[in-house]
């Protein structure tokens, strides 16, 4: 133990410049445990001001990928972030733009596959593009000797387009607001935040080319059970565009004492797929999360211990709808709904980081458990239990004007499935359809042990302008049966300014 302590004490002293010109943004932000929570007023628990702006570009390619990923891609973008402190006010802000060009891509039409309870797939590999815009900002102010108030705003928009039949466009709009207050006295602090979030996604499909046949699409109702048909068939609901919207209302409470921080949050989600009278699916669920952190100061070295747990449920119900036309007026009548899908997700993490000025070393373990129960066609019920474990090591070492970053992630998963029927009256002709080719690839991608490494090298000029390059290979640690390959490589270059 003494050798480890000596190592972390001496190593930064040997390689670090005598006078640091600018702090690294990530290190400064993570040094304040209140930044892990929802309460923006926790910004004033620290007093370091730091900002950066950068341009970047990169690419990625290889066959070790999930069904919704491209064979290759390139991207370019710009981003900036800041944490600024004044006498009685502190502010945090960020903005970014990114353009991504995907090649030989098909599968999910959604910008975030798997997030919503239903998904749509197409099967003609082609080029897709995405433009993503984000704006994030928060402000906190001292309004009395022991009181602070503030608020956060997080906005994201993206356009996701495929220009080869079957063509589709996905419009995404997300916004989150979180007003908060904080009471503090001496070493104690306590606060609360209200969180409102609204996200939406609208998928519009169309066919413009001249072809001899028709393109097919798949409506995934869960675990790759669903409807496979010509894309404009009424059972898929794609023609004319299909919106999905979700609202989240939550309350978080925080407490801090010296170098200890804790937060508990409860929220309720509800959403729907469809519009006006044609609401095809309604979904809702609850979410509970707990996180805590502790900072241990030893001379000029800081150790950070973090842990968290979250539990989330979701039930998706399919409405039974029928159109009635009378005197030339068509109305949609609802005859109730069926429970289509129930999901439970447990997430747990624990991590340790040690920092000294710009030097950083960290270990983190994560575990996700998903239980998914789908009944796409009565009386069949399919249950899937998925467990995914990740272990992450992170290392960042300044050497004069250079800085080396190393990151490695080991991942391993397990999947257990079971089938049952809730009635003995089962017909062989009524077996639910399942997209097995895609499901086998996705299960293999989760369960196959894999390793992703990342190596970065940064050089900082005298005026705090930096240039950085990185390479990130991923490799499967065993042979694969359904996935096309066992490796994938990503790379990027960045030019930025820290101030």
Description:
With 499 residues, the protein is mostly beta strands. The longest helix is centred in the N-terminal third of the chain and has 14 residues, at 2-15. It has helices at residues 2-15, 25-30, 436-447; strands at 50-62, 72-85, 89-108, 119-144, 147-162, 167-185, 188-206, 216-222, 225-230, 242-257, 260-275, 278-298, 301-326, 329-356, 359-374, 380-399, 402-421, 450-460, 465-476, 487-498. Helix content is 6%, strand content 68%. A hairpin with a 2-residue loop joins β11 (260-275) and β12.
Q: What's the tally of helices?
A: 3
Order of helices and strands: HHEEEEEEEEEEEEEEEEEHEEE
Structural class: mainly beta
Terminal Cα span:
37 Å
Shape: globular
Relative strand content: over 45%
Largest sheet: 18 strands, antiparallel, barrel
Mean pLDDT: 91
Provide the helix percentage.
under 10%
Radius of gyration: 25 Å
Extended strand count: 20
- List low-pLDDT spans: 1-22
């Amino acid at each position: 133990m003494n050798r480890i302590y000596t190592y972390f004490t001496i190593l930064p002293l040997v390689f670090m410049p005598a006078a640091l010109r600018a702090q690294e943004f990530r290190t400064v932000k993570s040094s304040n445990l209140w930044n892990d929570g929802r309460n923006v007023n926790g910004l004033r628990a620290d007093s370091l001001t730091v900002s950066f702006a950068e341009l970047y570009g990169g690419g990625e390619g290889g066959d070790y990928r999930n069904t919704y990923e491209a064979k290759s891609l390139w991207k370019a973008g710009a981003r900036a972030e800041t944490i600024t402190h004044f006498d009685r006010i502190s502010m945090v802000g960020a903005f970014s733009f990114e353009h991504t060009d995907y090649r030989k891509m098909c599968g999910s039409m959604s910008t975030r596959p798997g997030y919503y309870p239903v998904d749509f797939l197409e099967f003609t590999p082609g080029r897709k593009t995405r433009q993503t815009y984000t704006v994030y900002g928060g402000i906190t102010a001292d309004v009395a000797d022991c009181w602070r108030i503030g608020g956060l705003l997080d906005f994201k928009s993206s356009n996701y387009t495929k220009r080869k039949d079957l063509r589709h466009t996905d419009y995404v709009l997300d916004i989150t607001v979180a007003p908060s207050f904080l009471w503090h006295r001496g070493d104690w602090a306590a606060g609360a935040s209200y969180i409102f979030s609204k996200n939406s996604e609208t998928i519009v499909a169309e066919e413009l080319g001249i072809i001899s046949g028709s393109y097919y699409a798949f409506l995934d109702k869960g675990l790759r059970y669903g409807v496979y048909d010509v894309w404009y068939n009424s059972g898929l609901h794609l023609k004319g565009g299909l919106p999905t919207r979700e609202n989240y209302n939550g309350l978080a409470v925080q407490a801090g004492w010296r170098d200890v921080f804790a937060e508990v949050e409860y929220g309720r989600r509800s959403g729907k797929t469809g519009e006006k009278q044609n609401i095809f699916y309604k979904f809702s669920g609850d979410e509970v999360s707990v996180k805590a952190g502790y900072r241990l100061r030893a001379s000029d070295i800081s150790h950070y211990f973090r842990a968290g747990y979250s539990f989330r449920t979701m039930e998706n119900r399919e409405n039974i709808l029928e159109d009635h036309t009378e005197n030339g007026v068509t109305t949609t009548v609802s005859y109730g709904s069926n429970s289509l899908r129930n999901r439970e997700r447990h997430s747990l993490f624990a991590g340790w980081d040690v920092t000294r000025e710009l030097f950083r070393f960290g270990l983190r373990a994560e575990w996700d458990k998903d239980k998914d129960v789908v009944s796409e066609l009565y009386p069949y019920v399919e249950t899937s239990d998925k467990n995914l474990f990740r272990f992450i090591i992170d290392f960042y070492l300044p050497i004069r004007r250079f800085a080396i970053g190393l990151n490695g992630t080991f991942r391993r998963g397990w999947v257990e499935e079971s089938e049952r029927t809730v009635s003995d009256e089962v017909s062989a002709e009524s077996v639910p359809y399942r997209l097995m080719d895609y499901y086998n690839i996705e299960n293999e991608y989760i369960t196959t042990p894999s390793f992703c490494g990342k190596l970065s090298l940064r050089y900082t000029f005298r005026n705090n302008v930096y240039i950085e390059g990185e390479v990130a290979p991923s490799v499967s640690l065993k042979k694969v049966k359904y996935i096309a390959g066992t490796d994938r490589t990503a790379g990027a270059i960045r030019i930025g300014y820290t101030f």
